[in-house]
Amino acid sequence: MSDGYDLADALNYIDPAGLTYDDWARVGMALHAEGYPMETWREWSRRDYRRFHESDFESKWRGFGHMTGDPVRGGTIVKMAKDAGWNPERPHRALSWDSDINDREPRRYRDPAPAPADEPAIIDPSMVGDFDADVKPIYPVGGAAELSAFIEALFEDGEVVGYVVDYTEKADDKGAVKLVPGSRGVYTRTAGDIKAALARGLDNGIGTTHDESGAWIRFNPLDGTGVGNSNVTAYRYALLESDDMPIGKFAEIVRQLNLPVAAMVHSGGKSLHAIVRVDADDASQYRQRVETLYVRCEKNGITVDKANKNPSRLCRMPGVTRGGKRQFLAGLAQGAADWDEWEEWYATETDELPDAEPMSIDLAGERPKMAPELIKGVMRRGDKMLLAGPSKAGKSFALMEMCAAFANGLDWFGHKCTPARVLYVNLELTEESCSARFYDVFNAMKAGNVETVIPWNLKGHGRALSKLKAALVRRVLKTGAEVIIIDPIYKVMMGDENNARDMSEFTNMLDEIIRESGASLIYCHHHSKGYQGEKRSIDRASGSGVFGRDADAIVDMIELDPDDKARNVRANIKQCDECTKTLNAAGFEAAWTALGGKMFSSGDEALRHASDLLEPDEMKALTERCRDIWKKKDSLTAWRVSYTLREFERIAPTYMWFDWPLHVIDSKLAEAKEAGSEQSKGKSDGGRKKESDQEKRRREVNASIASGVSACADDGVEPTRANVLSRMLVVDGKKPTKEQLKTWTTPKKSPWCEWMNVTDGKEEGEAGTIAKKQNGTPE
After folding, report:
1. What is the pTM of this model?
2. Which CATH architecture has domain 373-561?
3. pLDDT tens sequence across 507-530
4. CATH numeric code, 125-350
5. I need a labelling partner for 149 at 20 to 30 A (CA). Which of 224, 485, 520, 714 fits?
């Protein structure tokens, strides 16, 4: 049981964000069992915006009513609150109805309850000065007229008003003596009777007051039989007060918040008492509205005294003196007219959404203009694009190619890019590795302009996007970037990537970044596990389907399994290109053109013609480079790029090789099957011939060594046997041993020995170092 405690008050000491899910639910069960309204649990839960979800909140609450067994009771909440510092027996927490509202100790718990996450603050309290409001009496002289005006503003003539004029002395814990109400006071007279009596003077109206203590009055009407909460007949007003801030600042924030203030009373001490209209129908609604009032005021800079929640509370009476100072009326009927008007005003002020306006399209005129295209046929300025693919698809290289295309107005994956400044958010590579990759990509693409690409290297500084957002927007605005590339997105992801609600919040934040920065946004994400061929491209990205439905453009990469003929053709083309480049550099461009240039059936034929023009040493070097190209053809990966577009018509897939460090378009790959498909495994009549176990193992060994060499390049370390071994993939389900790697890289045992500086009998660090030829090294 709650033993008579106000559980709503106890909740002020319990932070929902610090509870486990079970304890959070137990609070709801206890409130339900004790008869509190769902709104009490809802408003408290909103302090933890990650846990609070409006859509399923009511169903959880209803479910508490169908639980069997011993119910969770209010004592659970009481214990949680006491453990957090709540002490209802202390004077400032369990005041009697007649207690002096100024007779309180500083509270140990000062952490204000946060406003709902979807309500931003209206006021920046740092922009409000201590003396921005000039707090003055609205009546030049205090007395009966001032008090009569206060009663007139708050009560109907027939309503009973409670007040206290006698006092007693009370010592606090430090021995200081304070003057507090000496009794329950008067609570049987109507407002009309009091005003009539005040016409004959203050003492005739309310009796003898005392200058030492001042006097107190209740701001809600009573039933004439007592002064407790149960004696309140109309839950019309709430008391808003702060002892911890200058009265000029307090009054100015109250004014800027447009609060529906019925009266503002100076206490004659250090605070103002704002009597705020809440217009509640009953005690439950009163509790909810007072909580809403306090939460919003805290969020906008008022350090609210939360001990004033009771509807039967006393406030200082205007028109009397206290210690030689006036308790005076500082304002009447200011701000919104009532609670409903203020709610509407507050909602409007915090609504950051655009207005809904009637359509104004001239159907007989020109078609409305769209945003300019950023990548022709793929995305527009202000759009979001997702690049998705499996690990080792060269996604980072693809994004760096995109940077070069934006910087130089080149094609990316066959699509023309509009020149634009790019902020490349690198979350995965070291700064040195990132720079080296950009160097390789820009040189390979012959992209001369690098100045409009701004890398932001954050490896080791990753954090949730909610914490990175402000810094990201600042850098976009500072650099003038028109495109943001985040590589990869999982490094800044918030919440559970498989939870649709979490991902909806996350992608909404991406929209906020676009809106606040004015830039387009492109992000990179990996595929989910398993074979992807049977999935639509929109469903391949790992995590919730929100990813597939959020971006304006999805560019999806899926691996292909090309046959040997396709690899041979690619190697022949590269050999011809190498021959062309070498002969042009040697000054034989005209002669080479006369021989037919690239129009040869194979690299061997091109080499035979080149041998007629080059010196022996030059020809030997060219031959070695061409042999190297042929040997590396099996390490190339092939890809089909599919496009899911919101702003454009459907376009055909792009087929390409990842030939380090670039992706190279090859339309002939359209005939290749998807890697991992039944056809590529040789289980269909139309597929490739099934590999023998020996061939499969040889390919697995080559792929493992290639991955180790590539990882060394990524990490910026010397590709020695030891370094390669520590980075290799498994072979036959196990990590390779040092002896196995030595066997695989020994001359005459494997093709790898022909492009690695490995000779029999040599150890690491001497001739046993793998050749530092990074061009052509698999990713």
Report:
1. 0.51
2. 3-Layer(aba) Sandwich (3.40)
3. 889 999 999 999 999 998 877 655
4. 3.90.920
5. 224
